Amino acid sequence: MDVLLLRTMVCVADHGSFSAAAEVMNCVQSNITTRIRRLESHFGQALFERGRGGARLTAFGQSAYERAVTLLAQFEAVERDLLDAAGGAAPLRLGAMETTAAARLPAVLKALKARCPKAPISLQTGPTARLLGLLWERKVDAAFVAGPVDADRFTSVPAFRERLVVVSSAPGRLEGPLFAFTQGCSYRATAETWLRQAGRSDTEVVEMGSFDGILGCVEAGMGFAVAPERAVCQHRTGTSLQIEVLPDPFAEIETCLAMRLDYQPVTAAKVLLEILAEAPG
Amino acid sequence: MDVLLLRTMVCVADHGSFSAAAEVMNCVQSNITTRIRRLESHFGQALFERGRGGARLTAFGQSAYERAVTLLAQFEAVERDLLDAAGGAAPLRLGAMETTAAARLPAVLKALKARCPKAPISLQTGPTARLLGLLWERKVDAAFVAGPVDADRFTSVPAFRERLVVVSSAPGRLEGPLFAFTQGCSYRATAETWLRQAGRSDTEVVEMGSFDGILGCVEAGMGFAVAPERAVCQHRTGTSLQIEVLPDPFAEIETCLAMRLDYQPVTAAKVLLEILAEAPG
DNA sequence: AAATTAATATCGATATTTTAGATGTATGGA
DNA sequence: TCCATACATCTAAAATATCGATATTAATTT
Fold first, then answer.
1. Domain pair B3-85 / B92-160+254-278, same fold
2. Helix, strand, coil percent content, chain B, rounded in steps of 5
3. pLDDT tens, N- to C-terminus, chain B (281 residues)
4. Which residues in window 16-45 of A are less than 7 A from strand C by Cβ?
């Protein structure tokens, strides 16, 4: 019984079909079939019920899946620890909100790279809710998200204090729709709460996937947006964008670095925590 | 990082050299070299210090070894459980003392095979001390050993009550050396204690590896032996061997089935426990 | 200093395993 | 009926692991 087979089983179960798993694992679907069949013949039991609309775990498959998940997690934890012990070369997979990535991370990551040159560091951006999901599934090791964070599921340390501002094309001109990220973005949630309290629950919301796009639309006078001051300032150079701090209690938002409770920080993660502690934003 | 690589590392560490590991793993030594080098280059760190007289773990190798051992144990536990859940086909590796294997196990194993026909059952014989060692290293799942057993390290259930007898070629003729198994046999320890208490500490001891050999020598009048009554009776048919029960408190010895505290019994093991509970010997 | 010994390392041929990609089969819905 | 979706099967080729012979190394012995 090989780890690859277990990984494949977990991937199929997670993505609901052989073909989806093949895409995720960068191989052809026939390989997935072969591996699952090997596992199944090893146990003499079907792991999945195949049918239109994908593959579902059988009862036996379900129990195998649960054990496989914890086994693989332990396997990866050991591998991480050893890579780390071997010379601080354990990878660190970070997540961050778009705006944090743009406004805050360049300085932090530069300092981190300087102190852990060998550690491969990767970054994935997305809204807070999705990042917490990735964290929970162990797809990322630590994520910069808008606080506060559910302390029952994650540890978190304060990283940056952001001031939320309203961005518009002219002072006080809050006409047109609110440009915001897709659902799951906590800044958007804050903005909507603010608008409701200000009696503007009718404001239309336009979803956009990129921060640049949002600012571009706002600059063109198509509407307004809510974003952290730092992030706007970075983009504002040479533009006519106007900013205005949100009223309390919406102005002050804390960005935290969140991790799973059971995550054992690798060297690079410890250094990141030190960097955040040294230079509080 | 493949399981085979970890298994190889553990095997090298356990047996002290690449070539010894190669023998145990049924492959040529160059394979071991290749696998260890792959692991080492993966971590960028040496796992073993090579030298005349074998390979020793480096500090890093030691920590890798410890993690690998627990990981492999978990891996195997999961595999066992799943094979078991898939249809009671999980293997059961038994250990037993020579005399137990000869006198008691045939009936028990027959009943076990009848109730778990699919489960592969293997048996390894040896003296109590070695069996407990195998148990501890998880090389066997359960072992029939002479009680009492250290309850801090093993669970044990009573299996058979044996009456120890002195075997000689003529009634009362306890001349010549004591024929016994190698060190580690608890019957031998009992016999030596008895002899000491009887003021015969000077009795010479001849070690032999097989029970048949011992009885043969005794029958030829070369000396005497101590063994469970049942085992002697099986072999005695048509011989002139004389038996005499040992004085208290040496006569009554309990044979237990011992398992590691953390062993999760597979179906075959549970059935074995039932069989022992039904027909106490 | 040379020879011996007990180890691991290296290398090329071979065998095995895994993969990709083309094709087949089944099934439900337009 | 035809199409789309999804798994199964098969084959050639690519990747990988193994064997077996030989080289290398370092510590002992002579």
1. no
2. 45, 20, 30
3. 789 999 999 999 999 899 988 999 998 999 999 999 999 999 988 999 888 878 899 999 999 999 999 999 999 999 999 999 888 788 999 999 988 998 899 999 999 999 999 899 999 998 999 999 999 999 999 999 997 899 999 999 999 999 989 888 887 777 788 888 877 788 888 888 888 888 877 888 888 878 888 888 888 888 899 988 888 888 766 677 888 888 888 888 899 999 999 999 999 999 999 999 987 65
4. 26-28, 30-31, 34-35, 38
> A78 CB near a chain B CB, below 8 Å?
yes
Tokens 């027959």 identify what position? B110
> B67 to chain A: nearest residue by CA?
A78
> Which residue has 């591998």 as its token pair?
A79
State whether residue A253 is helix, strand or coil: strand
- Which residues have CB under 8 Å from A172's CB, separation 6+? A244
Q: Looking at the domain covering A3-85, what would its CATH class be?
A: mainly alpha
Q: pTM value?
A: 0.81
- For A76, the closest chain B residue by CA position comes to B1
Decide if domain A162-253 falls under CATH 3.40.190.10.
Answer: yes
Contacts of A95 (CB under 8 A, 6+ apart): A123, A124, A125, A126, A131, A134, A135, A140, A142, A143, A144, A145
What residue ranges do the domains of chain B occupy? 3-85, 92-160+254-278, 162-253
Q: CATH second-level architecture of A92-160+254-278?
A: 3-Layer(aba) Sandwich (3.40)
**Contacts of residue B14, Cβ cutoff 8 Å, sequence gap at least 6:** B21
